[in-house]
Amino acid sequence: MNTQPIIPLEDFFRHSERTGFQLSPDGKHLAYLAPWNDRLNLYVRRLDQSDEEAIRLTSETARSLAGYLWADNERLVFAKDTGGDENYQLFGVRLDGEDLRAYTPFPGVRASIIDDLEEQPDFMLVGLNKRNPEVFDPYRLNLQTGELTLLAENPGNYQGWMTDHDGKLRAAVAIVDGVNTQLIYRDTEEEPFRAVLTTNFKDVVSFMEFTPDNREVYAATNLGRDKTVLVRMNPATCEELELLYENDRYDIASISYSRRRKQLVSVYCTGHKDPVRHYFSEEERALRQRIEAHFPGKRVGIADTDKAETHYLLYVGSDRTRGAYWFYDAERDEATLLADLAPWLEEKDMCPMLPVTYSTRDGLTLEAYLTLPQGFTTETARSLPVVVNPHGGPWARDTWGFSSEVQFLANRGYAVFQMNFRGSTGYGRAFLEASYKQWGLRMQDDISDGVAWLIDQGIADPRRIAIYGGSYGGYATLAGLAFTPGLYACGIDYVGVSNLFTFMQTIPPYWRPMLEMMYEQVGHPEHDREQLAATSPALHAERIRVPLFIAQGANDPRVNKAESDQMVEALRQRGVEVEYMVKDNEGHGFHNQENRFDFYRAMERFLAKHLRPDVAAE
């Protein structure tokens, strides 16, 4: 039975008191985000000061900051959008709160940071789609004057830029013919860019970091392989010079490079539960061992370091705590707590996230996560109400760790099931490509097979299973209700796709150069018209017979509000119960705290009405 105390909904979804800590390059100041008027704003203090002495640098009331970074020891740069439109603008402010200025005050233009130019404190490289909304040009931003200098004009198909350790613009990634990826390179900024390798988008060759001498690169590649591996590569020819690391189960996910030591120190893969790390530096291995000795049984990540790499910010967490930030002095081997991200949530009241596997009908083994209400184990859990929660993307993945909404649902008496269906990233080329043109088909079968596994295990009550997801997970919710009509008792669609034709007509302008690629991944609106029609839930609303709750941000640039509107209209015309929540100041997901509260309150009422977690199975 469920022995958990009922925890207030707001405790799961309220802002942390302090979060997003970063150290200044000289290690003397600490910046972080903290709520002011229910919005996350930027604060800074000296390392030897208390939080009560911190200075608030921003006064945002409409929307929380999207992020920030230290530009140098005296200035921070932060980003914000308008109502969730994802057209991020960059602003700067000195650490004393003075000289607040807008660096990219261009309506409808999205800014991104290409390189913070750590060795050039007065400058930063940024990308802007100011000249052409479909592509981003690189600019050198003078942080003192605000002057923007165009460094290169995007010919119309460059999707990303890369600098070397000196901040020189040396490489780019382009899309050609809509479906091929081209690596562009030059030895110096005085030379023109030239194409050095063209591959199909299914092939991965990604420059991750230049070698210390700026002559070669560390690259991720799956050329001639299933898994993505780490190699040392000649960027002028893309010749592989040395295989540095490969894993037989997972793609590499990231690398760590020490700027101080000028050394590649480690490579990382996302495992089923524990991360997979390989070290190239014994110094780095010893450092991590010293750090982890302070936190037995916890997951420890290095969130930031000063330029000297003597002071570190650590994130320490698990599946049953939102985590905490710690300050670590490497010279003294001392760790000091900075902030618990949710001290009001006690670890003993949270539920373990259990890594599990199951088989699909065509023989794949999928990694998944099962969270049971407190008091249950996989041996004792029988006929529970279940919320099936497929992830968004879909070319993303679920990972082991703390999730506020998973813990909230478990606290309310539901088992929560998350699965890495085919197409989830990190499992190799074949697993990824098995998802192409399989929306609503084999990808959906993977979710259905997970539900069947839960029922076969006796964990799920077949009459009390809901499906809930956001973005692609919202599509999977609608597809689950329409194409497996007897499987679910109800569904919750959060900013999800409902019509594959209209979805691809309303994508953001900067996705348009990749539209042909999307056609290969999802389906072509003409060549695959019958399939897209058959797998668009909005065109089969008559098949949905169970209650549905839909939530949508009015300013969503990725999944247009029309995706939800047409689904709601089609269902209401047929008399199907559908609850519809629209937030006018949100985009692809609800970020404002009061909107999150509204959404989860509505979810709680909806699930309680249709799954009745308080009633034991008959």
Which radius of gyration do the C-alpha atoms yield? 25 Å
CATH class division of one domain: Alpha Beta
- Spatially, the strands of the biggest sheet line up as 28-29-31-30-32-33-34-35
CATH-level-2 architecture of one domain? 3-Layer(aba) Sandwich
The whole-number mean of residue pLDDT values reads 95
What is the helical fraction, as a range of percent?
Answer: 10-25%
Could you state the CATH homologous superfamily of one domain? Alpha/Beta hydrolase fold, catalytic domain
Shape from CA axes?
Answer: globular
Notes on the protein architecture:
The protein has 618 residues and is an alpha+beta fold. Among the domains are: 112 residues, 6 Propeller (Neuraminidase); 260 residues, Rossmann fold (3-Layer(aba) Sandwich), CATH 3.40.50. The protein has 11 helices and 35 strands. The strands form 8 sheets. The chain has an 8-stranded mixed sheet with strand order 28-29-31-30-32-33-34-35, with helices on both faces. It has a 4-stranded antiparallel sheet with strand order 1-2-3-4, with no helix packed on it. Strands 5-6-7-8 form a 4-stranded antiparallel sheet, with no helix packed on it. Strand 14 and strand 15 form a beta hairpin. It starts with 8 loop residues before the first helix and ends in a 7-residue tail after the last helix. The model has no long low-confidence stretch (mean pLDDT 95).
